[in-house]
Write a structure and sequence with these properties.
Layout (H helix, E strand, L loop, with lengths): L1 H30 L8 H11 L8 H13 L1 H10 L1 H21 L5 H30 L19 H28 L3 H32 L1 H7 L4 H19 L3 H23 L2 E3 L3 E2 H4 L3 H30 L22
Antiparallel strand pairs: 1-2
Helix pairs in contact: 1-2, 1-3, 1-6, 1-7, 1-11, 3-4, 5-6, 6-7, 7-8, 7-11, 8-9, 8-10, 9-11, 10-11
């Protein structure tokens, strides 16, 4: 059962990377859009694209935390005790990002909009970097087993963590740009479609460069994961690369819909390949998945809960995204009846 839970956790990580990653990547393009006049149109596309779904994407993160601490408590304790600094920064970034995104839509003055917009954009870069740095620290063996705490600084500010953190930011930006190309063209904003298409191509090339550099760093600092990527995880890694190249070709040919599907598969393939490469260790090379697992009764109860969650939550997600893609969702917020003018009619 521990293997089944491990697969569920890996798929949840891939889902968060695909949905939440694109959400954070949109913030990166918000950050680089330029001044208030120059960046007004790209930011309008970004707000329309992520407005109805940005809150829902973090359900995957909560799911990941619940599954990890329930199924692998000792590993969860070690990770949290060691990585409390980047986790705290990421949590603060998520809260600040959400609050800033909401407030920017309602404030009146340009200065206030710039402040909230800057907080939203910077947090959108900080969070994926911290998440990537945490993954790199775990892969490079900086988290000890047994519920012990490792070094709170070196554990996430080391060569592997820095590369994986940067890769997470770049991949999120790439995925968001691909989504935004389709979204802009769906609403017949072809100039914005071209704007984000160019950025999708550039970020795809940047992601490839960072990934290649990352392989050399993994070979030197996390040989277990590198060996796994070049052996048991090689088929999924190759599939991810093929999907990434295919998405790039389709972007060059202005085929946004097909590019979006291949981009999703490419990013999900990165997460799946990483998990296969690290297998069977949860904490390389000190704690395996089976050794970290909770008692079988706990795992069975967790699997039942996961099954029920999928039956209840996933249809809601599907409906949300379908309505969003068909532009059938209302704008965020509702009209306050108290704001309506009072009309007095005489008899």
């Amino acid at each position: 059962m521990s293997t089944t839970i491990g697969i569920v956790l890996l798929l949840a990580l891939a889902a968060y990377a695909v949905f939440g990653g694109a959400d954070f990547g949109a913030g990166f393009w918000d950050l680089t859009a330029g001044g208030s006049a120059r960046g007004a149109q790209p930011r309008a596309v970004i707000e329309r694209s992520i407005g109805p779904v940005w809150e829902a994407n973090h359900v995957w993160l909560i799911f990941i935390f619940v599954v990890t601490w329930s199924a692998f408590p000792s590993a969860y304790a070690s990770i949290m005790l060691t990585m409390f600094v980047p986790f705290t920064l990421a949590a603060l970034g998520i809260v600040l990002r959400g609050a800033s995104f909401a407030f920017r839509k309602v404030v009146v003055t340009l200065r206030s909009r710039r402040i909230f917009g800057g907080a939203f954009a910077l947090s959108s870069v900080l969070v994926p970097f911290c998440m990537g740095a945490i993954a790199g620290g775990i892969a490079s063996g900086h988290v000890p087993s047994g519920g012990k705490a490792g070094d709170p600084i070196d554990s996430w500010l080391n060569p592997v963590s820095l590369v994986t953190g940067i890769l997470a930011v770049v991949v999120a930006a790439y995925l968001a740009a691909v989504y935004l190309v389709w979204d802009a063209r769906h609403f017949r904003e072809y100039a914005m479609g071209e704007y984000f298409r160019r950025r999708a191509v550039v970020s795809a090339v940047a992601a490839a460069v960072v990934a290649v550099v990352g392989l050399f760093v993994l070979n030197a600092k996390a040989s277990h994961v590198f060996d796994g990527l070049t052996s048991r995880a090689l088929p999924s890694a190759i599939l991810s690369v093929v999907c990434g190249v295919g998405a790039l070709v389709l972007l060059m040919r202005y085929a946004a819909r097909g590019a979006r599907i291949l981009a999703v598969l490419a990013v999900a393939g990165i997460i799946v390949s990483w998990g296969i490469a690290q297998w069977p260790f949860l904490l390389p090379e000190s704690l395996t998945v089976s050794a970290a697992a909770a008692p079988s009764g706990t795992l069975l109860a967790l699997l039942v809960a996961v099954g029920l969650a999928l039956l209840i939550v996933v249809p809601g997600f599907v409906l949300l995204y379908v309505l969003h893609q068909r532009a059938l969702l209302p704008e965020e917020g509702t009209e306050d009846i108290g704001d309506r003018p009072i009309i007095i009619t005489g008899g």
